[in-house]
Amino acid sequence: MSEPLPIAVLVSGTGTNLQALLDTVHGREARIAAVASSVEGAPALARAQARGVPTRVFARADYAGRAARDEALADWLGERGARLVVLAGYMELLGEPFLARFPGAVINVHPSLLPAFPGLGAIEQALAYGVKVFGVTVHFVDAGVDSGPVILQRAVELPDAREPGEVLAALRALEHELLARAVALFARGALRADPQNPRRTLIEADG
Ligand code: GRF
Fold first, then answer.
1. Which of 122, 115, 116, 108 is nearest to 151 (CA)?
2. CA 136 to ligand 1: nearest atom
3. How far is the CA of 14 from the centre of ligand 1 (A)?
4. Atom of ligand 1 at shortest distance to CA of 171?
């Protein structure tokens, strides 16, 4: 196997997706070289520290504005050699200047079958709509809100779901599985845009 791909993970909260990456691809296809949080004291930070992964907080209030924060964040990730940036519950939008620092190398996990229910409260949106099928999407990040090219999706039928908690419990495991698989595929160079349709992500056969 080639050298593990150095990656960065951006978090804001609990960090179960970060934990899934620490427990799977970290030290194999990838090496988590940095974890940055937009929130001081986010439980996700302790998960990284427990495994000796460098962490830093980039709280919006500490900077003149979002652009300044994003620039400082991109600089820190670059200094750590990150070749892929994984958003794992990161609750801030990333502007074009940040994305341009990591072209085609920022991915996100979202608890709905995009393009349905983008943005915050996706599960609550789906329940309010009355869907019978829920799901998870891992996608490349563009300057929109959860609008970049899809990498992996998985659906789950929950016809009787009524509360966000029961949907979240069913989707968490899918998030962890799909995000780890997407990182492994990216690390192996198995993902590329379809020349016929750049919105479509092709996965190499052995991916
Ligand atoms: C997950 O539901 C993810 O899909 C969404 O934010 C949540 C993060 O959860 N983007 P955790 O912090 O990884 O447990």
1. 108
2. 4
3. 8
4. 2
Ligand 1 centroid to Cα of residue 202, in Å, is 25
The answer to whether residue 26 is catalytic is no
Q: Determine the atom of ligand 1 nearest the C-alpha atom of 19.
A: 13
CATH number of 5-203: 3.40.50.170
Q: Using an 8 Å Cβ cutoff, are 137 and 112 in contact?
A: yes
Residue 205 confidence (pLDDT): 78
Going by their DSSP bridges, the two strands 5-11 and 84-87 should be labelled as: parallel
Listed by start position, the domains of the chain span 5-203
Burial pattern 141-156, b for ≥16 Cβ within 10 A else e, equals bbeeebebbbbbbbee
pLDDT of residue 35: 98
**Nearest CA residue ID for atom 4, ligand 1:** 110
Note the pLDDT tens digit of each residue in 47-96: 999 999 999 999 999 999 999 999 999 999 999 999 999 999 999 999 99
How far, in Å, from the CA of 183 to the mean position of ligand 1?
16
Q: Is the pTM of this model over 0.85?
A: yes
Q: Give the pLDDT confidence score for residue 1 in this predicted structure.
A: 59
Q: What is the DSSP letter of 72?
A: H
